[in-house]
């Protein structure tokens, strides 16, 4: 394909720009995080916050949750045709906030179990799921916006 023509053709230039915009939309679609991934990670985070209910032998459950998170990350990378740059500083801040929220809710779960209020552990579990889903969805939105800004 010739990159420089002797006479500029505005119609051809508009066609090329439209093609580029179509390619950008297709890339954005392929870089979006699938709903199944968000739901699975949210469920695993909620399960992690419920781990204090298992009593003293929590290691196998934590190991399985960690392994499942790794498998999901690998599956996501194989499914995506495009690897987004990431959400930048804002995305990193969101993930730090998610980690802090999960650890806070985990300690609330430990406190409720220690106080004998086992049924109330459902509240921090649900809160962890809601926070995880919201943060992961926002991080995905930031990553897609970063892709949209590339010109």
Q: Could you please describe the fold and organization of this structure?
A:
Helix content is 75%, strand content 0%. The protein is elongated, with a radius of gyration of 22 Å. The chain is built from 5 helices and no strands.
Layout of secondary structure:
Layout: H1 10-31, H2 35-49, H3 59-79, H4 88-114, H5 122-149
Number of DSSP strand runs? 0
Task: Return the string of H and E elements.
Answer: HHHHH
Distance between the termini: 21 Å
How many helix segments?
5
Large-scale geometry: elongated
Largest sheet: none
Integer average pLDDT: 85
Return Rg in Å: 22 Å
Helix % is over 70%
Low-confidence stretches: none
The proportion of strand residues reads under 5%
Structural class: mainly alpha
Characteristic key phrases:
151 residues; 5 helices
In short:
This protein is mostly helical. It has five helices and no strands.
